[in-house]
Amino acid sequence: IGNSGNYSMYADFVLLGLFSNTRFPWLLFAFIFLVFVISVASNTMMIILIHLDSRLHTPMYFLLSQLSIMDILYISTIVPKMLVDQMVDQRAISFAGCTAQHFLYLTLAGAEFFLLGLMSYDRYVAICNPLRYPVLMNRKVCLLIVVAAWLGGSVDGFLLTPVTMQFPFCASREINHFFCEVPALLKLSCMDTSAYETAMYVCCIMMLLIPFSVISASYTRILITVYRMNEAEGRRKAVATCSSHMVVVSLFYGAAMYTYVLPHSYHTPEQDKAVSAFYTILTPLLNPLIYSLRNKDVTGALQKALGRCSSSGSIGTIIILKN
Predict the structure, then answer these.
(1) Which strand (E) or helix (H) includes residue 175?
(2) 53 with 47: CB under 8 angstroms?
(3) Are 200 and 260 in contact (CB under 8 A)?
(4) Where are the alpha helices (H) located in the chain, listed in sequence order?
(5) Spatial CB neighbours of 246, under 8 Å, sequence gap ≥ 6
(6) CA 64 to CA 241: how far, in whole Å?
(7) How far apart are the first and last CA of the chain?
(8) Which of 27, 131, 20, 56 has its CA nearest to residue 292?
(9) Which sequence ranges are marked TM in the entry (predicted)?
(10) How many CA atoms lie within 13 A of 18 on its CB side?
């Protein structure tokens, strides 16, 4: 009995993935691979631009660079494994690998939740208290925001991962998902998980409620301040920066609410996979695009960097021709 119990606890899982019920799996593979490459490249570009351009050495862009780091790690936790599995035609993931993926996913998703919530405070101070902005959003405060976001995510990972993975999985080892997400894993347990699911539901509500409360309070004050602004240019700039943040928040929080807050009876495994694909694969791609396309500072920094590269390339060509 001890050996069979160990087997049920620590044997490999099988990820059924996204490609199993697709008519054109290699077309979907090419699309996800392209999204992954563009996502990593665009987020890396954002980090480099923010580091190199002195105009972007502000609290908002420092926090955006942290968001880009989270997005790179977030998508890299799930997509490479999924793509490699499709290439070599194998679906297995070890118990240790599933545990690691589960922990990293929860930690990074949680950290992004808290960071997006705390970023609204930065926008609130910038618009409602611009004269005190350098004091209220100094380097120490920025570092505290980042540390708080990472700690919040880590607590989520350290709390939920051990409890989820200690359940005996004596049913099928096939996870009807493309990564080790909590709801899909709990369906394999042969124990009653209802108490844990209720506790996790409360935990998720709190994780969403705390940042959402900060966001709601910040944007209520921001809307009042913007409404009272006399300058059309100042109003336009305030709305542009805040709308970018609100789009990202709506996409990320909306998908998470669907997965973890909406009762299971309202969604199917296929819908779960589609929504999870959206916030694990597409959101890391959309974040840098949303912030850069609507931001003159970022586009200006990119043009400056491209101009520098082209000019240095031209100088190099001239030197080679002279020699």
Answers:
(1) strand 174-175
(2) no
(3) yes
(4) 2-10, 25-52, 59-88, 95-128, 133-136, 139-165, 182-186, 194-228, 232-260, 269-277, 283-293, 296-322
(5) 219
(6) 12
(7) 79
(8) 56
(9) 26-49, 61-83, 103-121, 141-160, 198-217, 238-262, 274-293
(10) 27
pTM: 0.84
Q: Is 17 left (phi over 0), alpha (psi -120 to 50) or beta?
A: left
What lies within 8 Å, CB to CB, of 113 at 6+ separation is: 152, 153, 207, 208, 211, 252, 253, 256
Cβ atoms of 86 and 17 within 8 Å: the answer is: yes
| Closest listed residue to residue 165, CA positions, set 141, 198, 188, 139 | 188
Q: Residue 13's beta-bridge partner residues?
A: 93
User: For 100-141, how does the pLDDT look when each residue is reduced to its tens digit (9 = 90+)?
Assistant: 999 999 999 989 988 988 888 898 898 888 889 999 999 999
Q: Report whether pLDDT(319) > 60.
A: no
Burial code (b: 16+ CB inside 10 Å, e: under 16) for 193-227 equals beebeeebeebbeebbeebbebbeebbebbeebbe
pLDDT band at 4 (very low <50, low <70, confident <90, very high): very low
- What CA–CA distance (Å, rounded) separates 170 from 193? 13
Residue at token pair 């922990």 = 103
DSSP, residue by residue, 237-298: HHHHHHHHHHHHHHHHHHHHHHHHTS-GGG--HHHHHHHHHIIIIIHHHHHHHHHHHT-HHH
Is 95 within 8 Å of 89 (Cβ atoms)?
A: no
- Classify residue 124 by burial, with Cβ atoms within 10 Å: 0-12, 13-18, 19+: buried
The whole-number pLDDT of residue 150 equals 95
| Cα–Cα nearest to 67, from 288, 292, 316 | 288
> What number of other Cβ atoms are within 10 A of residue 17's Cβ?
20
Average pLDDT over residues 238-246: 75
Q: Which pair of tokens denotes residue 175?
A: 């996870």
pLDDT tens-digit map of 52-77? 888 889 998 999 999 999 999 999 99
